[in-house]
Design goal:
Elements (H helix, E strand, L loop, with lengths): L6 E5 L6 H8 L4 E5 L2 H9 L5 E5 H5 L4 E11 L6 E5 L8 E3 L5 H13 L6 E3 L8 E5 L12 E4 H9 L3 E9 L5 H17 L1 H12 L3 H11 E4 L2 H16 L11
Parallel strand pairs: 1-2, 1-3, 6-7, 6-8
Antiparallel strand pairs: 3-10, 4-10, 4-11, 5-8, 5-9
Length: 256
């Protein structure tokens, strides 16, 4: 950036973001602002951030945000950290509690109930107690829930429905930002740094989350896809197409 101010980067502290953000964490000219993915788009629009890792849904329904092409957080099959956890068998589920952290996962769950599960349910905000099932994303979803009757990986269900990978989050910046090229270069460099320091990310993540290092390594180096190409772009187009078909919009996928 040419104004000599620190670059303000917004991203959640979820493990799935680490390979994209680790380089920024070790850049003295960057300030990392940790927040729920569902809140980062608003902060980006307000000018509090220069670049943010935001839920895909916020970009699909936006005309004021651009994305860093070729990078994001996705999976081609099971993602392991975006779940529908049911307290009763799926066919008996009548109410589902949304997750406060990501509107993309909430919208995906709503779409899957219509097109994949063929069920009508009541959608509950995160603050609501109870519910027959809940959308759970991020680090909490990596831990087992002994009280769960059935569990569904939403990225796996999406692939069963469409045959495509799924993209959950993308780097975004305001369309009027004059430093788009610099942001692209910095995002790419940060990801390259993350790939070079994968073992450090695994070690730190395993210690923080109290998970086996082998599980963490497989999650961030095998399960998740950070580099995106034609199939991911097709998947994003398909997601928007189906959301429009079923009249699902971001306003129906948030909890606050």
């Amino acid at each position: 950036m040419t104004d000599n101010k620190p670059l303000k980067i917004g991203a959640s502290s979820f493990l799935n973001s680490a390979p994209l953000t680790y380089g920024f964490q070790h850049d003295p000219n960057v300030v990392i602002i940790d927040d729920k993915p569902s809140r980062l788009s608003a902060r980006l629009r307000k000018g509090e951030l220069d670049l943010a890792l935001v839920p895909l849904i916020d970009v699909l329904f936006s005309d004021d945000l651009n994305t860093i092409q070729g990078l994001g957080v996705g999976a081609d099959g099971p993602v392991r950290s975006v779940k529908l956890r049911c307290q009763v068998p799926l066919k008996r589920v009548e109410s589902v509690r949304l997750d406060p952290a990501s509107s993309t996962s909430n919208c995906l769950a709503q779409l899957l109930f219509i097109q994949r599960f063929k069920q009508q349910v009541c959608w509950l905000p995160a603050e609501t107690a109870g519910g027959d099932a809940a959308v759970i994303i991020g680090d909490p979803a990596l831990h087992n829930d002994p009280n769960c009757a059935e569990e569904f990986d939403l990225a796996e269900e999406w692939k069963q429905l469409t045959g495509l990978p799924f993209v959950f989050a993308v780097w975004a910046y305001r369309r009027d930002n004059p430093y788009a090229n610099e942001l692209y270069e910095k995002a790419m460099a940060a990801h390259a740094f993350g790939k070079k320091h994968l073992n450090d990310i695994v070690s730190e993540g395993a210690e923080k989350l109290k998970l086996p290092p082998a599980l963490v390594h497989e999650y961030i180096s095998g399960t998740l896809r950070y580099e995106q190409g034609p199939r991911e772009r097709e998947a994003m187009r398909k997601f928007k197409e189906l959301l429009d078909l079923e009249h699902i919009k971001p306003a129906t996928c948030t909890t606050s």
